[in-house]
Write a structure and sequence with these properties.
The complex is a heterodimer.
Chain A: E1 4-12, E2 21-28, E3 33-37, H1 44-49, E4 60-67, E5 70-71, H2 77-83, E6 84-87, H3 91-94, H4 100-110, H5 115-129, H6 144-156, E7 162-166, H7 174-191, E8 194-198, E9 211-216, E10 219-224, H8 230-235, H9 245-253, H10 266-277, E11 282-283, E12 299-306, E13 316-323, E14 328-332, H11 339-346, E15 354-359, E16 362-363, H12 369-372, E17 377-380, H13 393-403, H14 408-417, H15 433-445, E18 451-455, H16 463-478, E19 482-486, H17 490-496, E20 499-504, E21 507-512, H18 514-519, H19 527-532, E22 536-537, H20 542-552
Parallel strand pairs in A: 3-8, 3-9, 6-7, 7-8, 11-22, 14-19, 14-20, 17-18, 18-19
Antiparallel strand pairs in A: 1-2, 1-4, 4-5, 9-10, 12-13, 12-15, 15-16, 20-21
Helix pairs in contact in A: 4-5, 4-6, 6-7, 9-10, 9-20
Chain B: H1 17-33, H2 37-55, H3 57-81, E1 88-92, E2 95-98, H4 99-125, H5 128-138, H6 140-169, H7 179-210, H8 228-249, E3 255-256, E4 262-263, H9 268-281, H10 283-301
Antiparallel strand pairs in B: 1-2, 3-4
The chains are: A alpha/beta, B mainly alpha.
Chain lengths: 553, 302
């Protein structure tokens, strides 16, 4: 008897034309760590929710889901909440109470656990997760990563046998995400809890998972060990976007090697590459230094100093940043270094207390707000949903059109450019994260600004969607709009940016083409570059390595 | 996160919430029941001493900028508007200003000062945790509602700021508009805020349900233990309350302002009661000082 047995499960949402799940068969053993991957809307969240009856969506269901031999919907709420834990995407919205200790206690309080037993459970959980120090804190004072760890702890305190996680790190930065994955691995290894996690960030989970399940359009297209997943690339090259870089390199260059020897981690990738090249050292010619045409920068920040409070620490310490017309400038850097602050200062939203910001050569503060934002500058903050007030994207665009007295044709033009027609009448809260992002950018584009500032625009996007999004940004820069993208997503920046500025220590410490800035770094760079370290110089993407080996052959 | 109300570590904040609640009930209610100037003076003085121990410099500013002006205003306004009493001191624009009204004004000023200052202490000591604990003992679900509200209010404010910023960055902000434009913008922010809170409450509800919310019976977690010291504080406060009842019954602390001023301030019974009253109210301050002293002396032995 398998721990979880899903047989021929199909599900259709009310009024949906096509099923969200079609004929899913899956059986999972106790203690397994399963990664479920696939593009947004492939049905992975829906599948996960069917394992937790209290969250199961309404609609037409057929087939069966068995948990420990019995249909899962026969579990009563008490057993279900104790044995099946569920963690969702957005940490802020999942937190219920105001204090850390209360959040940890919440589930136990629901179960009616006695105070003495609760003390023990909470103490041991806090100890396991290392959160004893912030027990008395307000939940609001925690970072996103800490909040998500707290939620994981709150669920684990109920001693579940099955943990379900629906894109738990989509709102976290890479450092917090890998910490979260480490904790998940410990729960699985040290407590023996079965873990099923859906995630776009597959690179960090492949080495941990016992099994990988790929879904597309409601069906399971692959289920097997992580190493076997390399076969996916051979069937469909678009999977390159989802699989770890080491695997992509392997799958495309393996020759006669069996799939079971596929590398998963950067370390294994390095070993494979060294063996594959037979110790030979190659190099991609470094790009010729770009001739700077004497273009006047749209935005020029000079020696800007900024801090949030009078006695606080300086976040910007004499920062210089130029934004040239029609370029895609990526601002990258570690967590909490102040990338977002730099964006806010460069766009004039925050005023540096020293130094200046020039907009087309004029001090930005001399341009009245009404002229500055909308017509000249567009700023998109994290969580694009915040800007939406209306019931449909169409009404939202109409409001902007009226505000700036634009023509209906302009709206149609932007709708076409941002590929919005299929979702024009949808509520912004009902479409996927990537689609909201597109709608929000469309709103900014309407009054034809010359610079767009985007903060963490690729957050929560799946790998397939990122390809489209990158192409879209390229289209915009080709039309002359400058884009400043602040991002943690090094792989995306390496692929699509014209110029990269690395932000650290309160200023831009390196800038230039992605290859010059990232190619030389040893860890703040792409996975492919790390794999190629010591064998090939100046690598940025897995494609670089593959084409070099193919050329050699 | 450090509690912002507290300047120093407080010994009294470790007292069990039930004992602390009884103490505050006593300290806050007594000045309102007994308008005896001596007792009010004791209460005000005890409250000021403790509030300084709790909040340090911050309390000085509060006292000078808020408490004293309020007291002064009350002391001055009473004789101006209240003309009862038989001892006329002088006439202010044909209206008599009486000694009784002046004294009554002073007494009510002391009462206000004492109650406000005890409230600052209450605020510093009674963190949301204690409030939730006390409600949780009676109604666990109400305790949860309070906790959720405490989380939601600051979240709402923060979110409103983010929305305003997002709108500004999209050129849909306020600046430059007239009153109507600004009101419209405010409404848009409010509407975005409501949409957001409705959406987020769906997720919160799911997260609650996933963790068994709705099962009965619900319990309430706390980490408070009732020890000997808590019992002593509780008993001592109860003793103070009982004696206050007796003192009132025997007329030991009687005071009359109108029509003529009459006060009982010298009888042995009153003095005895006043000493006890002072002892109860000075208890927290004494506890703070005692613990601080013990800490220093134990350090000097290390």
């Amino acid at each position: 008897m398998a721990f979880i047995d899903i047989k021929d499960l199909s599900f259709t949402y009310p009024e949906a034309k096509s099923p969200a799940l079609s004929h899913v068969d899956l059986s999972i053993g106790e203690g397994e760590f399963v990664l479920v991957a696939g593009p947004s809307g492939c049905g992975k969240s829906t599948l996960l929710k069917h394992l937790k009856p209290s969250l199961a969506p309404f609609g037409t269901v057929s087939g069966s889901v068995k948990f420990m031999g019995r249909p899962v919907d026969e579990l009563d709420l008490r057993r279900e909440s104790r044995e099946i834990g569920f963690v969702m995407q957005d940490p802020e919205m999942q937190i219920v109470t105001d204090k850390v200790w209360h959040e940890l206690a919440f589930g136990l309080e629901s179960l009616g656990t006695g105070v003495t037993e609760m003390r023990v459970r909470i103490a041991e959980t806090a100890n396991f997760f290392g959160i004893g120090k912030w027990m008395e804190s307000d939940c609001a004072s925690l970072s996103g990563g800490q909040k998500q760890l707290l939620l994981l702890a709150a669920v684990t305190a109920m001693q579940p046998r099955l943990l379900l996680l629906d894109e738990p790190t989509s709102q976290l930065d890479p450092v917090a995400a890998s910490e979260f994955f480490d904790t998940l691995r410990r729960i699985n290894q040290e407590l023996g809890t079965t873990v099923i996690v859906t995630e776009h960030r597959t690179e960090g989970l492949f080495p941990i998972a016992d099994r990988v399940v790929f879904m597309r359009e409601g069906g399971v297209v692959f289920s097997g060990t992580p190493r076997e997943a390399a076969s996916l690339i051979e069937k469909d090259p678009s999977f390159t976007a989802v699989l770890p870089a080491a695997m992509t390199v392997f799958a495309k260059t393996r020759g006669q090697e069996p799939l079971s020897s596929s590398p998963l981690t950067v370390r294994e990738g390095m070993q494979y590459l060294k063996a594959r090249l037979g110790g030979e050292r190659l190099s991609i010619p470094s790009p010729a230094p770009q001739k700077h045409e004497k273009k006047q920068p749209v935005i020029a920040m000079r020696g800007a100093w900024f801090r949030y409070s009078k006695n606080g620490a300086d976040i910007l310490k004499g920062t210089d940043l130029d934004v040239l017309p029609g370029e895609l400038l990526a601002v990258i850097g570690g967590n909490g270094e102040g990338k977002t602050t730099a964006l806010m200062a460069a766009s004039g939203m925050y005023k540096p207390y020293r130094g200046k910001v020039l907009l087309n050569g004029k001090p930005i503060s001399s341009v009245p707000e009404g002229e500055r934002y909308g017509k000249t500058i567009g700023v998109l903050l994290q969580n694009p949903l915040l800007g939406f007030t209306r019931d449909s994207i169409r009404e939202e665009l109409e409001a902007v059109r009226k505000r700036f007295r634009l023509s209906e044709e302009r709206v149609a033009e932007v709708v076409e450019l941002m590929e919005l027609s299929p979702i024009l009448d949808s509520n912004p809260y009902d479409v996927s994260g990537g689609e909201v992002q597109r709608a929000a950018i469309a709103k900014l584009l309407l009054p034809s600004p010359s610079v767009l500032f985007l903060d963490e625009a690729t957050k929560g996007m799946d790998a397939f969607f990122k390809l489209r999004f990158g192409a879209l940004l390229r289209k915009l820069t080709a039309l002359g709009t400058a884009i400043v993208l602040v991002s943690h997503d090094i792989e995306f920046c390496a692929e699509y940016a014209d110029r990269v500025a690395m932000f650290a220590l309160g200023g831009v410490i390196a800038e230039g083409s992605p290859r010059t800035v990232l190619g030389g770094n040893s860890f703040y760079t792409t996975a492919a570059a790390r794999i190629a370290r010591g064998s090939i110089e100046n690598v940025l993407t897995a494609e670089d390595i593959v084409s070099l080996i193919e050329k050699k052959a | 996160m450090k509690d912002t109300e507290l300047n120093n570590r407080s010994a009294f904040s470790a007292v069990h919430p039930v004992a602390a609640l009884l103490f505050f009930a006593f300290a806050l209610v007594m000045p309102m029941l007994l308008l005896h100037p001596v007792l009010l003076g004791i209460s005000f003085a005890a409250a000021v001493v403790w509030s300084f121990l709790l909040r340090g410099k911050k309390q000085l500013g509060f006292l000078l900028k808020f408490v004293l002006p309020v007291m002064l205003l009350s002391a001055l306004l009473n004789p101006v508007f209240n003309h009862a009493g038989v001892t006329v001191l002088f006439y202010l624009r044909y209206n008599p200003v009486t000694l009784e009204a002046v004294l009554y004004g002073l007494a009510s000023a002391l009462m206000l000062g004492a109650v406000i200052t005890w409230f600052t202490c209450f605020n510093a000591i009674f963190t949301s945790d204690k409030l939730i604990y006390l409600t949780g003992r009676l109604m666990p679900s109400l305790a949860l509602v309070i906790s959720m509200a405490l989380r939601f209010v600051p979240l709402f404010t923060r979110q409103a700021k983010r929305i305003a910023l997002a709108r500004r960055g999209a050129g849909m902000g306020t600046t430059g508009g007239n009153v109507i434009e600004r009101a419209k913008n405010g409404l848009s922010i409010l509407s975005a805020l409501i949409t957001w809170s409705l959406e987020s409450s769906v997720t919160t509800a799911d997260s609650m349900r996933a963790r068994g919310y709705g099962l009965h019976p619900r319990t309430s977690f706390s980490n408070y233990r009732f020890d000997g010291r808590d019992a002593a504080i509780l008993l001592f406060t109860a003793l103070g309350a009982g004696c206050s009842g007796l003192a009132a019954g025997f007329g030991a602390a009687s005071v009359r302002f109108f029509p003529s001023y009459k006060i009982n301030a010298c009888s042995p019974l009153f003095i005895l009661y006043a000493v006890l009253y002072a002892a109860v109210l000075l208890l927290p301050a004494a506890l703070e000082l005692y613990e601080a002293h013990k800490w220093h002396s134990s350090i000097s032995k290390i």
